[in-house]
Amino acid sequence: MSAAAPALSPATPTAPDAAPLIRMRNLRKVYRKRGEDFLAVSDVTMDVFPGDMVSLVGPSGCGKSTLLKILAGLHGHDGGTLEIGGAGHAAFDAGRDVGMVFQQPLLLKWRTILDNVLLPADILKIDKRQAREHALALLEMVGLAGFADKMPYELSGGMQQRAAIARALIHDPKLVLMDEPFGALDALTREKMNLEMLRIRERTGKTFIVVTHSIQEAVFLGSRCAVLTAGPARMAECFDISLPQPRTLHVKTSPAFGSYVQRIYDLLGVE
Ligand SMILES: Nc1ncnc2c1ncn2[C@@H]1O[C@H](COP(=O)(O)OP(=O)(O)OP(=O)(O)O)[C@@H](O)[C@H]1O
């Protein structure tokens, strides 16, 4: 599909034969505070397919984090339907099958990097020897081989965020949810982490949903992009991003990349 092709409907799969891992239909979420209702998500319809890297973009306060929290099982929803797993997939247990990465690495400062990565494995009581081997392999994959015994303060912000990504993968989740994972990093480190993420996605084949405020990042990372409009969140459009593979930083100067960026600006009403 070229960048100028018409929008795909939310139900159009990236891999036509695969069953969606996540089906959201008219999802709605109301927060109740001090007796008052606050509509945070009004109407989100989207399918996410196994192996997708969905970038979720929209203005501040439009409900992106709320949507991730619903997917992570941290919040319920008040309307519409949400199916995760379902037909064609093994049963889905949010406690075991979701990995989370936040804007800050949130490493425990009294644990080594290896022990931080192992934290979800400890909680889920995964066999210690197996988990340790897996953690060391993940640290190698995220470029932290040799840093297992360091303490968090000995690592840069970007390195700590890599450790947080390894931690999100230690229990072999089916779905990895990332909430502005590179928002706290400097521009150059962020570019490097974007490249790293594409590599990690390719190597793990996992399904990722990444919230970002950066439209360029949304296009660069996403195999699909979901654009939400201002609060309460409503789905403006969800479309495939077809850019050459493997993606390199050069793609950012291509006309196709520019067309996708423009399409998102248009959807968000940015002149
Ligand atoms: N626990 C809560 N109780 C009440 N209101 C909440 C709660 N969490 C979020 N909200 C409100 O819901 C709306 C959506 O918040 P959310 O954090 O999902 O937006 P967001 O798109 O992730 O924002 P940002 O991009 O600034 O991080 C906001 O208006 C926020 O104030």
From TrEMBL:
All residue ranges annotated as the ABC transporter domain in the record: 22-255
The entry's keywords: ATP-binding, Cell membrane, Membrane, Nucleotide-binding, Transport
SMART domains cross-referenced by the UniProt entry: AAA
Domain of life the protein comes from: Bacteria
A GO term for molecular function: ATP hydrolysis activity
Coiled-coil blocks: none
Family, per entry: Belongs to the ABC transporter superfamily.
UniProt protein name: ABC transporter ATP-binding protein
